[in-house]
Write a structure and sequence with these properties.
Helix 10 packs parallel to helix 17 and helix 14 packs antiparallel against helix 16. It contains 18 helices and 8 strands. It has 2 domains: 175 residues, Rossmann fold (3-Layer(aba) Sandwich), CATH 3.40.50; 252 residues, Up-down Bundle (Four Helix Bundle (Hemerythrin (Met), subunit A)). By secondary structure, the chain is α/β, with parallel strands linked by helices. Strand 4, helix 4 and strand 5 form a beta-alpha-beta unit. It has an 8-stranded mixed beta sheet, sandwiched between helices.
């Protein structure tokens, strides 16, 4: 089987296969000539997309004969000097450390727009940016930072949803306008980030590794380690120390399966707790114009990530639970339990309380997982863009609290009356579900407190601009009043 990675991105001249016909093989009249300096993967994909968009493309290479077969037939492959002379707009698609090799092209590139598509090797917070260094190297040209967040694959297959945005910046408005027009024609959406001083921010975008996910993931892992060790101490270590009974076989499946729902419920509670904190701060300060603390700001912006981590743990808990009957240990435990009951003379193994508890808490768990799945799906950008804000807030807030309520009910039914059984307090440690229920119950009770009419009315007033530090008062526009304003004589 041939190696797929060894094939060039673009099937060019020769090679026995002929050239691949593009969507638009002939450049449109009046279209500017686009130059590309560089012959790497990105340059080849860019050339293909430009040709398909109706542009005349000329590629500048140090060794044109070696690179000519890698580009479509409609693109001219020539020397770098010739490409710089012919082009009206030039893409600089060479590594930043090689920009100095282009100094000889300075006269040919004077007065032209240079599009810098390069990225650094690591996040640069100090500056200067690569684009600013390129502008210093070519002071008579107009440098635009763009297309560095678009991969060669996205250029080759065309824009798809999240890959449609092209961040760009430049000190020249005319140069930016020409690049914006080019973006639209290629099927991308240009996002103007302002002057070239914003290039540092644009260059750092592809280098970030899940910046919004670090705190949620660290929180999830910390909770998992805590609850795992807690369950290990109660269910494995305590029987071994007190009774000499080895239960270490529970570590891979049982202990993990008890830990996952604990993490899922706490993480789901952490999704809605910052909203309650924000509401309480607004009620306390009596205004919506006072900034939240920085930690609360960051927490509020990461609620989606907390929710998806909760969904992940819930799905894994479901899979682990479905696998429980398949284990040898589960079969042995079932047989031993049956033999003990037979020896004890028990003829009817049916226990109504246990049956009802199992039926109810499994049903509540399924409903909670279904609601969590709906929350996860609507958080996808492709889905969120198809619904309006009211629908989105209804799903994420109203149905989100329903999911939290059902998950809490699921945990309560699982615990049943074991919270009052002294035998469950091994090493004087309460059952895991008792600890897990603390935070979700606080969140649900806090949410109910905000539904109290006097509290809800004051919160609505604050969010519509009312401030307790001012003398102007108003009532909500639901009542029959002059545009919602109340006549106050002492103002």
């Amino acid at each position: 089987m041939p190696d797929e990675m060894s094939r060039p991105l673009i099937r060019g001249r020769g090679g026995g296969g002929g050239s691949r016909h593009l969507e638009a093989s002939v450049s449109e009249p009046g279209a500017p000539v686009i130059g590309i300096l560089g012959t790497g993967d990105f340059s080849r994909s860019l050339a293909r997309r430009l040709v398909a968009s109706g542009y005349q493309v000329v590629v500048g290479s140090r060794i044109p004969k070696r690179s000519v077969a890698l580009f479509p037939e409609e693109a001219e492959v020539t020397s770098q000097m010739e490409a710089a002379n012919q082009a009206d707009l030039v893409f600089v698609a060479v590594y930043p450390e090689h920009h100095s090799t282009l100094v000889d092209l300075k006269p040919a590139l004077a007065g032209k727009t240079l599009v810098d598509v390069s990225n650094g090797l690591q996040i640069n917070r100090e500056g200067p940016s690569i684009a600013e260094q390129l502008a210093d190297l070519f002071p008579e040209s107009f440098v635009v930072k763009a297309f560095n967040t678009i991969s060669a694959w996205a250029l080759q297959v065309g824009p798809r949803d999240g890959s449609r945005q092209v961040f760009l910046c430049s000190d020249s408005q005319k140069a930016k306008s020409s690049v914006k027009q080019l973006c639209h024609r290629m099927g991308f959406i240009p996002i103007d980030m302002g002057l070239l001083s914003s290039a540092l921010e644009i260059e750092n975008i592809p280098l970030y590794l899940f910046p919004c996910w670090r705190i949620p993931i660290l929180c999830m892992l910390s909770l998992f380690i805590f609850f795992y060790l807690y369950n290990f101490t109660r269910d494995v270590l305590q029987p071994f120390i007190t009774e000499g009974k080895s239960a270490f076989y529970k570590m891979p499946i049982d202990t993990v399966n008890v830990t996952l729902p604990s993490v899922a419920l706490v993480m789901l509670s952490l999704v809605y707790l910052p909203g309650l904190c924000a509401a309480l701060l607004q009620l306390w300060s009596g205004t919506k114009y006072k900034r939240f603390p920085n930690w609360l700001d960051q927490w509020l912006t990461r609620r989606k990530q907390f929710g998806l981590c909760s969904f992940l743990c819930a799905v894994l808990h479901t899979i682990y639970s479905l696998c429980l009957p398949m284990r040898k240990s589960a079969r042995f435990e079932l047989i031993n339990m049956a033999l003990k009951k037979v020896k004890a003379g028990v003829e009817n193994f049916w226990v109504d309380e246990d049956v009802w508890r199992m039926e109810l808490y499994v049903s509540a768990g399924i409903m909670a997982l279904g609601l969590l799945s709906l929350l996860a799906v609507t958080s996808l950008p492709s889905v969120a863009n198809t619904i309006n804000w009211r629908e989105f807030s209804f799903v994420q807030s109203t149905l989100g609290y329903c999911a939290l309520s059902m998950a809490t009910v699921h945990t309560l039914l699982f615990g049943w009356n074991r919270a009052f059984d002294p035998k469950q307090y091994r090493f004087y440690l309460p059952p895991t579900f008792v600890l897990v229920l603390i935070l979700p119950l606080i969140v649900l009770l806090g949410r109910l407190a905000l539904f109290v009419p006097c509290v809800a009315l004051r919160l609505r007033q604050i969010r519509r601009g009312w401030e307790k530090s001012r003398h102007i008062r108003f009532i909500l526009p639901d009542d029959d009043c002059r545009n919602g304003l109340e006549d106050v004589s002492n103002v």
